[in-house]
Amino acid sequence: MFQDNLKELDIVLNEEQLKQFETYYEFLIEYNKITNLTAITDKKEVYYKHFFDSLSLTTSLDFNQIKNMCDIGAGAGFPSIPIKIVYPHLEVTIVDSLGKRIKFLEQLSEKLNLSNINLVHERAEIFALTHLNSFDLVSARAVGHLALILELGIPMVKPKGYFIAPKGSNYKEELNDSKNALKVLKTELIKENTFSLPYDFGFRSNLVFVKKQNVNGYPRPYAQINKNRL
Ligand SMILES: C[S@@+](CC[C@H](N)C(=O)[O-])C[C@H]1O[C@@H](n2cnc3c(N)ncnc32)[C@H](O)[C@@H]1O
Q: How far apart, in whole angstroms, are the C-alpha atoms of residue 34 and residue 161?
C-alpha cells in the first residue's frame, strides 16, 4: 500500500494529504482524456511512477531547510506538486513552455488548495535570465540530457544551493558527458541516491548537485545550447 511504501522515504501522510493525492490522481486522469499530460494512467503506476518517484527526492536533502524550489518542465506537476503536498511550507515555482500544462496546473492547484505556488508559461532559458541566483533548489525531471538541464537550472540556484536531477539507469553515462557542464557552471555532484521503485517499477537515481559559486553568461539562447551542448 502507498502509505506503507512511503515509510521507506520517511513520509507519513495525514488524512488531508491522502485525499489530495486521490484528488490529484482523479483530476489527472480526467484531464488527460482531453489534453495529453501523461502516458501512465493505471492507478498503481501513477502512484508509484509519478507520486512515489517525485517524493523520492525528499530523501536527498532536508526539505524543512528548503524555502523555495523551481521545477523546470514539470508537465503534469512532477516532481514538485507531490513534494508541495508533503511540504506545504515550500514556495514552488513551475516553469513550463507548454501553456496547456500550465492551465492544468492552475486548476489542479485550486482543487488541492495549494498556496504559495507560481505557475509560469515560459521557456526556462528565458525565465532564468530574470531569476538568477533565486532558488534554494531547482529540479527538472524528464526534460532532457543532464548537461542541458544543468545549464537551464544552475543559473537560477542560489550559491551554495542545490540542483536535483532525477535520472534512470543511464545516469553514469550522462554524468560522464556532463563533466564540462559541471566545470563551467561551477557545480559539484554531492550525492547519487540510487534506488528501485516498489513493485519493480524501475531503477532510479536522484543526482544531487551543489552550486559552489555564481556564474555569469548562462543559460545561453536555446539555439546555441542545442547546437553546442556544454
Ligand atoms: C517529458 S515532460 C516531463 C514532465 C514532468 N517533469 C515529468 O517528469 O512527468 C517535459 C516537459 O518539459 C517541458 N519543457 C521542455 N523544454 C522546456 C524548456 N526549455 N523550458 C520549459 N519547459 C520545457 C515540456 O513542455 C514538458 O511539459
A: 38
Indicate the pairing of strand 187-196 with strand 203-211: antiparallel
Q: Is the pTM of this model over 0.90?
A: yes
ipTM for the complex shown: 0.99
What cell does 5 get?
A: 511504501
Identity at 173, one-letter amino acid code:
E
Q: Cα(71) to centroid of ligand 1, in Å?
A: 9
Residue 1 confidence (pLDDT): 87
Write down the architecture of domain 2-227 according to CATH. Answer: 3-Layer(aba) Sandwich (3.40)
Report the nearest atom of ligand 1 relative to the CA of 123: 20
User: Looking up cell 532510479, which residue turns up?
Assistant: 204
Q: Whose Cα sits closest to atom 4 in ligand 1? A: 75
Within 10 Å of residue 134's Cβ, how many Cβ atoms? 16
Q: Can you say whether the dihedral through the CA atoms of 18, 206, 180, 230 is positive or negative?
A: negative
C-alpha–C-alpha distance, residues 79 and 54, integer Å: 4
In terms of DSSP bridges, do strands 157-167 and 203-211 run parallel, antiparallel, or are they unpaired? antiparallel
Other Cβ atoms within 10 Å of 40 Cβ, number? 17
Compute the distance between CA of residue 109 and CA of residue 91 in angstroms, rounded to an integer.
13
